[in-house]
Fold this protein.
Amino acid sequence: MLILASGSPRRRELLTQIGIAYMVNPSSYKEDSPKKKDPVKFVQAQAVGKACDVASIYPGQWILGADTIVAVDGAILGKPRNTKEASVMLHTLSDRKHVVYTGVALVRDGEIHSRVVETKVWFRHLTDSEIAQYVASGEPLDKAGAYGIQGRAAAFVDKINGSYTNVVGLPLSQVCKMLRKAKVDV
Ligand SMILES: Cc1cn([C@H]2C[C@H](O)[C@@H](COP(=O)(O)OP(=O)(O)OP(=O)(O)O)O2)c(=O)[nH]c1=O
């Protein structure tokens, strides 16, 4: 059975949504600080790191790992460390376009398949009080870029270009193609 190397409830929900059977074993891979790196290389390395970490515990089994970040104007935004950082991130994203990158890695022993999917997202203008209220809701804290498109932040999004599930944490169509190509029995 496929093993999901993730503690993210969103990734579990997404895989469940499309009827893929899986077991969960979150990775203990230590996430790197995202600053000043190429976003594509960064998320890909993170996804491979997470999947390889769990693959070493399960020889012969397929492991799926993923990592999501937000990139805006050369800066990479991961998960905010506190409410202040969440507020700064949301002010940065207000009234502009950013890109969400999710790296996906499928690993079995030494065999590694990986790719990065990107989605462009346009936020409308957010007022200070709107940001303060959203941060107080607690929703931003465990999410890259300090927002969840699947939650209250749906109201911030003018439009997206690309995969919606990629923004939530796992690009489902692309994951299915990877599973098929690697001949994973799901
Ligand atoms: C942009 C965005 C991110 N997110 C979430 C998806 C990811 O869970 C999280 C980014 O953090 P990640 O480091 O990618 O994942 P994680 O720490 O939650 O879980 P794990 O490493 O164990 O797989 O942000 C949303 O839920 N909605 C959104 O709109």
Notes: The chain has one domain: 2-181.
